[in-house]
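Colleagues,

For the teaching module next term, I've prepared a clean inverse folding example: a structure given as tokens, and then the sequence designed for it. I'd like students to try predicting residues themselves before seeing the answer, so please don't circulate the second half yet.
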């Protein structure tokens, strides 16, 4: 099955419609996700929307620091585990998730 944009848009619409999070929280979570994904265009758009919603640059910069620290921690933990596996000669196959064929189909 090919890419179905409507499914994604429907899901995003339901996600944004939740009343469990405030608009401010939605802006901050959305920005954290786009920074983690590494999309500069999406990140710019999220920053602009957050600023327009009244979120200060101080808050946005604090979010950048948190996201950077969390992502650095994930990268370090991933590397440590990779070294542990290499040292123990217990290298496991990455499986379908990391296979080149899967990356092409994403």
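(Answer key — instructors only)
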């Amino acid at each position: 099955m090919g890419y179905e944009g409507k499914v994604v848009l429907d899901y995003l619409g339901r996600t944004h419609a939740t009343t469990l999070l405030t608009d401010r929280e939605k802006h901050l979570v959305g920005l954290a996700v786009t920074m983690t994904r590494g999309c500069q265009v999406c990140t710019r758009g999220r920053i602009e929307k957050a600023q327009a919603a009244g979120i200060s640059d101080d808050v946005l910069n604090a979010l950048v620091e948190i996201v950077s620290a969390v992502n650095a921690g994930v990268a370090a933990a991933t590397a440590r585990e990779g070294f542990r596996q290499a040292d123990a000669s217990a290298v496991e196959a990455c499986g379908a998730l990391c296979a080149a064929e899967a990356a092409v189909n994403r």
